[in-house]
Amino acid sequence: MNTLAARFNAIFGADMAGPLAALAAVLIVFGVASPHFLTGATFGSVAFQLPELGILTLAMLMPILTGGLNLAITFTANTAGLTLAWTLQANGGIDAGPSAFLLGSALALAVGAVSGLVMGLVIAFTRAHPILVSLSMMIFLRGLGEFLTRGGDISGFPAFIAPIGHGSILGIPVPLLILIACVIASHILLSRSKLGFSTYMIGSNIESARYSGINTRKVLVLVYVLSGVMAAVAGIIMLARFNSVRVGHGESYLLITVLACFLGGINPFGGFGRVLPVFVALIVLQLLSSGLNLLGANQHLTTAVWGILLIVVMVLRWLSAKIIRIVK
């Protein structure tokens, strides 16, 4: 048994055990409960629904690794989407050309970067708690968006945008390809770059990181800027997928991004965790949602199950750590 465990850890990493076990459990339980679960339709639906949630989770991941949090990711995404929508509307609406889309996308990414920059600067230089700073940014972006849109939607975009949200290449959804690209980029950034190493160091002990010569302020600012940019990418995909944008789109995603990070083995206090287990955890949560839908549960029950699951994950991790200490 110990040899098997050691071999598994060597191949996949110890933090993959939980997500893979959860994946197997979801497949078995819902596969037995519903004959329509293990079908191409279910997995195709998951492939189209997963990307914006997955990219928002990547936007949440890096701040958590530093011991922080970015509660503003969904409203950053929606504000970025609104920026793109306004740019398209100003350049002809449904008749806007690719150049207007490229300009709007660049502005949307800039909005995400500025949102992250403000949070990063405040957190890095004032030592204010990331929860309070990101909560303040969330409230600001929500209020600004409601004021500018009067609580309504903006719709009416060029037809060439639709494939970004609904198209496929060789049978693989375009949004999923974008998510996979973001997962690979995040994995390389965290595992092979100086910024990734510094991120883990800060999450483990920010004072030790500072004394070891790491510019902790610079790293924190960069982490939140990247988080904002990643959220903006999600906002662009959400606009293409829904063919509309409003400030309140995807509010329930915030809970799921945190849950996916913790289910994927991310230490809530920072310093430990990888991208790939989080990606598997995202698939588990989306399959869980699809399975509950097939059984007739509504979205509100699904959200409640996610909340309970978050509590269960925290309790199991506490029990696991306690058992390990006793064994040692």
Textual characterization of the structure:
The chain has helices spanning 2-11, 17-33, 40-65, 73-90, 98-126, 130-149, 162-166, 174-192, 194-204, 206-211, 216-242, 253-263, 275-294, 299-327; strands spanning 154-155, 168-169, 172-173, 244-245. It has 328 residues and is mostly helical. It is globular.
Summary, kept brief:
The protein is an all-alpha fold. It is built from 14 helices and 4 strands.
Q: Count helical runs.
A: 14
Shape: globular
The ordered string of helix (H) and strand (E) elements is: HHHHHHEHEEHHHHEHHH
Please summarize the sheet with the most strands.
2 strands, antiparallel
In the sheet with the most strands, the strands line up as: 1-4
